[in-house]
Design a protein that fits this description.
Low-confidence stretches: none
Helix content: under 10%
Mean pLDDT: 95
Largest sheet: 6 strands, antiparallel
Shape: globular
Structural class: mainly beta
Strand order of the largest sheet: 22-33-24-29-30-31
Distance between the termini: 46 Å
Strand content: over 45%
């Protein structure tokens, strides 16, 4: 019997029960309808994304005791269709000597009827440490299940002694996959020269891991690379990372921390100038991908960015919760770019098509909508949602801009786009996902209207417009 787990489970259950009771009869205008949000407290990185026994499993890093974060667990949602999600409770607790200060991010691997989880266990030593070069321990931990409900005792696969000596204590976020008859794992890391990198390991049995190489840039590109994901898309090898410490620019790396990808050629490194950001909005970080039984490569991310509290906020903390995950997005490779678009199952959420006049403001009696515009031929236009949110295009620049209180402190995000031919805005109660040119460029952002209805204005925007309620 694990006494610590029992205590944590009881405390978490009370926190979730309290959140449910406080939510009864209370107006929660920002509670999402079709995006994963925490039952209570705080949600961040998506973890262990996979398909197992006919269901999609989306684990997530979870701090149930406070909407401002804290001790991390893994929670779990499952779905049969990527739209209707069912909360399955907490799966991983910080209840061992290897993860007593947090169940950090990781991945899932399914084989031979088993669901296997690999993740980082976080330990912070007491004392006068900088917690960069000393004072922190990161372990690769393993557990598995044959039914998706009951998990084996945790095993420690790797610790600090298994990592290269020129790395700091910041090594985490294992992603595991199989090629041929060998298994591979990538870990994100921070080198002692403050350079971000990815560590690559191999194994024959998923238990004993051998260090193979590192992937990094010739000159530092950020001091830490988090949440690595190395996968193939239409034959091309892709490395997705979330680098911290990349200098911010006017139309690139506008967020405090970035997320993006490199194209990786065999036996060569990657270069900073080839990095492409996944998303140009305010709220996107720590993406993870998986391949489903339809052969699709699907991505989901945390709709936020760490350490941004001083720049903008999320007023859902007043309701006892914070953060959501993005819509699952299918990836495809076209003309040297990765396009991302909502999985086709999202279309089933559409309830009715709403007639649209481009000469008048559109008034919706509901907060959630799906707006599609095809065959755009205007060179300069603007879409307004309420009065305080505008998405505009002029001189080959797209801008998402908030004024007033709608953005909770968010101001503007920009992207260079040669030509906008199509646009899709997928809006939940407190999340906007804007897909330009079928996902060539995407803007993801939280927003906080103070009413259930929505007002949409199309200015100088010609094209085929379809609007659906959700």
């Amino acid at each position: 019997m694990n006494v610590m787990r029992d205590v944590l489970a009881s405390q978490a259950a009370l926190a979730e029960k309290k959140a449910r009771e406080e939510g009864k009869g209370r107006e929660e205008c920002w509670k999402t309808r079709f995006h994963i949000m925490p039952p209570a407290g705080w949600l961040n990185d998506p973890n262990g994304l996979c398909q197992y026994q006919g269901k999609y499993y989306f684990f997530f890093q979870y701090a149930p005791f406070s909407p401002y974060g804290g001790l991390k667990f893994w929670g779990l949602y499952t779905s049969e269709d990527l739209t209707d999600w069912s909360y399955q409770g907490i799966v991983l607790y910080p209840d061992s000597p290897w993860d007593c200060h947090g169940v950090y991010s990781g991945s899932a691997f399914t084989e031979d009827g088993e669901l296997e989880l690999f993740y980082t266990g976080n330990v912070k030593l007491e004392g006068d440490y900088d917690y960069i070069d000393k004072g922190r321990e990161a372990y690769v931990l393993f557990t598995k299940s044959r039914d998706g409900e009951n998990y084996s005792p945790k095993e420690c696969l790797m610790g600090m002694e298994d990592y290269p000596r020129d790395y700091t204590c910041h090594i985490r976020d294992p992603k595991v996959w199989k090629e041929g008859d060998r298994y591979y794992m990538v870990l994100g890391g921070r080198k002692k020269n403050s350079q971000g990198a990815v560590l690559v390991y191999s194994s024959w049995d998923k238990k004993k891991w051998k260090y193979e190489k590192e992937i990094t840039t010739s000159t530092p590109f950020g001091y830490m690379w988090e949440c690595p994901d190395l996968f193939r898309l239409q034959g091309q090898q892709i490395l997705s990372v979330s680098p911290q410490g990349v200098p911010r620019q006017e139309e690139a790396f506008q967020n405090l921390y970035a997320s993006g990808y490199f194209f990786v050629e065999e036996d060569t490194g990657v270069e900073a100038e080839t990095f492409r950001e996944w998303d140009m909005g305010f709220d996107f970080y720590a993406p993870q991908t998986f391949r489903d039984d339809k052969g699709r490569r699907i991505l989901a991310a945390w709709a936020s960015v760490p350490d941004t509290e001083k720049e903008y906020g999320n007023p859902t903390t007043e309701q006892g919760w914070q953060h959501v995950l993005t819509t699952p997005r299918e990836l495809r490779l076209e003309q040297g770019k990765i396009y991302q678009y909502p999985v086709s199952e999202i279309d089933s959420l559409r309830t009715e098509e709403i007639p649209v006049s481009q000469r008048e403001d559109i008034w919706l009696e509901q907060p959630c909508f799906d707006l599609e515009i095809e065959e755009i031929d205007s060179e300069e236009w603007e879409i307004a949602i309420e009065e305080d949110c505008r998405f505009s295009y002029k001189n080959h620049r797209a801008v998402l801009e908030f004024t007033g209180t709608l953005g909770a402190g968010r101001k503007a995000r920009r992207a260079r786009i040669d030509q906008v031919k199509s646009l899709r805005i997928l809006a939940d109660t407190s999340l906007l996902e804007i897909y330009v040119n079928h996902g060539e460029t995407v803007f993801t952002s939280r927003y906080y209207p103070n009413r259930k209805e929505r007002q949409i204005s199309l200015k100088n925007l010609s094209g085929k417009v379809r609007l659906f309620g959700l």
